[in-house]
Amino acid sequence: MRTSIYLFLITAVFLMNTGDPAAADLKDGFFDITWGANLSELDGFKKISENLNVAYFVSDRRAYKIADIKISDVVYGSFENQFFAVYVNIEAIDVFAQLRRYINHKYGLPKIKITKMQEADQQTVYQWNYEKTKIKLKIYENRDNMKMAFYYTPLSAQVNETQMETFQETHKKPIFPLDKTQMQQAEQLRDLMQF
């Protein structure tokens, strides 16, 4: 009896430690970088730009392997000093296809969104969700522009909300007072609507 319990415990511990390492990487962060970390405090990161509350970093000391593809050209996004996004440029269509197959295998079929259909700059976005991470593969059909991105959704939702508020504040078009042309159009519309 003791041997059975002992064997059962060893098996349970073994099975708990053989989880998918890539899935664990996305659950808590991107590989060894924890979501929410302050990138400016981590060794090897250099800020390259900033827009509103989002700062973008690079690190020439880091390279990753996804689907047996070496990925070293990575840009990291930080919102209010909290790491929330990873952006990867993809150079070749075969690499894009290999990444898409790999992510399909790991996380299931994606949600697919096509924008600007039948136009020169049509974009297709493949999106997967795992835990609190959103994975996107983007391709412009008539350009050599392909990207992969990973977003930590609790922070990326805050980024989207903040950027929308800022956009609305800075791009408000006043309704009144109307210029002469707008006033004439409004008066014509008013006259037309009177019965």
Please tell me the overall pLDDT: 79
The rounded Rg comes to: 24 Å
**Count of β-strands:** 12
Could you give the order of strands across the largest sheet? 3-4-7-8-12-11-10-9
Biggest sheet, open or closed, and with what strands and sense?
8 strands, antiparallel
Fraction of residues in helices?
A: 25-40%
Task: Extract low-pLDDT stretches.
Answer: 3-24
What is the 3D shape?
globular
Describe the structure in your own words.
- Strands 3-4-7-8-12-11-10-9 form an eight-stranded antiparallel sheet, with helices on both faces. A two-stranded antiparallel sheet has the order 1-2.
- The chain is globular, with a radius of gyration of 24 Å.
- The protein has one domain (20-193).
- The longest helix has 18 residues, at 153-170.
- The chain has five helices and twelve strands.
- The chain is of the alpha+beta class.
- Helices cover 36% and strands 33% of the residues.
- The N and C termini lie far apart (94 Å).
- The protein has helices spanning 2-16, 21-28, 93-107, 153-170, 180-193; strands at residues 29-30, 33-34, 46-51, 54-58, 64-66, 69-71, 74-79, 82-90, 111-115, 123-130, 133-140, 145-152.
